Automatic annotation (TrEMBL):
<comment type="similarity">
    <text>Belongs to the GHMP kinase family. IspE subfamily.</text>
</comment>
<dbReference type="GO" id="GO:0050515">
    <property type="term" value="F:4-(cytidine 5'-diphospho)-2-C-methyl-D-erythritol kinase activity"/>
</dbReference>
<feature type="binding site">
    <location>
        <begin position="95"/>
        <end position="105"/>
    </location>
    <ligand>
        <name>ATP</name>
    </ligand>
</feature>
<feature type="active site">
    <location>
        <position position="11"/>
    </location>
</feature>
<dbReference type="InterPro" id="IPR013750">
    <property type="entry name" value="GHMP_kinase_C_dom"/>
</dbReference>
<dbReference type="InterPro" id="IPR006204">
    <property type="entry name" value="GHMP_kinase_N_dom"/>
</dbReference>
<dbReference type="Pfam" id="PF00288">
    <property type="entry name" value="GHMP_kinases_N"/>
</dbReference>
<protein>
    <recommendedName>
        <fullName>4-diphosphocytidyl-2-C-methyl-D-erythritol kinase</fullName>
        <ecNumber>2.7.1.148</ecNumber>
    </recommendedName>
</protein>
<comment type="pathway">
    <text>Isoprenoid biosynthesis; isopentenyl diphosphate biosynthesis via DXP pathway; isopentenyl diphosphate from 1-deoxy-D-xylulose 5-phosphate: step 3/6.</text>
</comment>
<dbReference type="InterPro" id="IPR036554">
    <property type="entry name" value="GHMP_kinase_C_sf"/>
</dbReference>
<comment type="function">
    <text>Catalyzes the phosphorylation of the position 2 hydroxy group of 4-diphosphocytidyl-2C-methyl-D-erythritol.</text>
</comment>
<keyword id="KW-0414">Isoprene biosynthesis</keyword>
<keyword id="KW-0808">Transferase</keyword>
<feature type="domain" description="GHMP kinase N-terminal">
    <location>
        <begin position="67"/>
        <end position="145"/>
    </location>
</feature>
<dbReference type="Pfam" id="PF08544">
    <property type="entry name" value="GHMP_kinases_C"/>
</dbReference>
<keyword id="KW-0418">Kinase</keyword>
<feature type="active site">
    <location>
        <position position="137"/>
    </location>
</feature>
Length: 287
């Protein structure tokens, strides 16, 4: 029986800009995303039957075709005429419906894992292209590292990773539907982040510049729906965070912090208040 284990890391948005609404229903976006070392773990096993089996103990994660890992497996089986099935055991560590691309990263890990398990010989770029059919963030999750994502998120330009720092992630009890947040976007009210300035700060390894150019056009929309997100931001700043922002469509808020001691102060300041709080690092290299 062939089994492999694959890591599926979360992402955060250093910027997220909404440029307009497209005729296909998606929004045109421009985002700087980076991978952090908070990961789900997937165990993939080849089955003799032709089924795709998902196993997860998480109450909010579907075990059927609605799971993005299932869709990724189905896509590869159909496209490459794979006769055998696969069992995917999901050990969820990334908070669900959190703005951290947990489901997309599981789909990306499934693509990478099945590529190896079934000797498909596809490059990461080819897998990223296939992944776009499963979800807009899947392409980025296949590649990992740091990138500017455009289009609906699937057009990637890899850039260097930010200088090492600590990232505190805090997710309030609520989950947020990405579709609901995009539906509530009013284009004329959008506050656009300065993506170019963020990319320059990253290339210059200018930590203060990165912190001052954090910006997310969806933040105001989610804050309106869920005021507790603002409270987390304020607590993080009060505890000494260098920069704070909501990731993706939320509700997870992250803090960037240069010094370890301060990172633990921010962590301790939020622990009693948020059910899910983590201190992680930016993953500088491809996984
Ligand atoms: P993004 O940042 O890409 O918008 P997210 O972090 O906000 O993603 P996910 O954790 O990916 O959101 O989950 C969103 C919904 O997708 C969940 O409510 C869940 O029902 C469904 N889902 C499907 N597959 C998965 C998976 N493998 N892990 C978690 N949720 C999944």
């Amino acid at each position: 029986m062939r089994t492999i284990s694959v890591k599926a890391p979360a992402k955060i948005n250093l910027t997220l800009d909404v440029l307009g609404k497209r005729t296909d229903g998606y929004h045109e976006v421009e985002m700087v995303m980076t991978t952090v070392d908070l990961s789900d773990r997937l165990e993939l096993t080849v089955l003799d039957t032709d089924e795709i089996r998902i196993q997860s103990e998480h109450a909010y994660v579907p075990n059927d075709h609605r799971n993005l890992a299932y869709r990724a497996a189905e896509l590869l089986r159909k496209r490459f005429n794979i006769k055998q099935g696969v069992e995917i055991v999901l050990d969820k560590q990334i908070p669900v419906a959190a703005g951290l691309a947990g489901g997309s990263s599981d789909a990306a890990a499934t693509l990478r894992g099945m590529n190896e398990l079934f000797d498909l010989g596809l490059s990461l770029e080819e897998l990223a292209e296939l992944g776009a059919a499963v979800g807009s963030d899947v392409s980025f999750c296949v590649m990992g590292g740091t990138a500017i994502a455009r289009g609906r998120g699937e057009q990637l330009e890899t850039i260097p990773s930010p200088p090492p720092c600590y990232v505190v992630l805090a997710k309030p009890k609520i989950g947020v539907s990405t579709a609901d947040v995009y539906r509530a976007v009013e284009m004329e009210k959008i506050v656009h982040p300065n993506t170019e300035a963020m990319v320059t700060a990253i290339r210059d390894r200018d930590f203060d510049g990165i912190c001052s150019h954090l910006g997310n056009a969806l933040e105001a929309v989610t804050l309106e729906l869920h005021p507790e997100v603002r409270q987390i931001k304020e607590t993080m700043l009060h505890c000494g965070a260098d920069g704070v922002l909501m990731s993706g469509s939320g509700p997870t808020v992250f803090a960037l912090i240069e010094h370890e001691q301060k990172a633990h102060r921010v962590y301790n300041g939020l622990k009693g208040f948020c059910p899910e709080v983590f201190v992680v690092r930016i993953l500088g290299k491809k996984h």
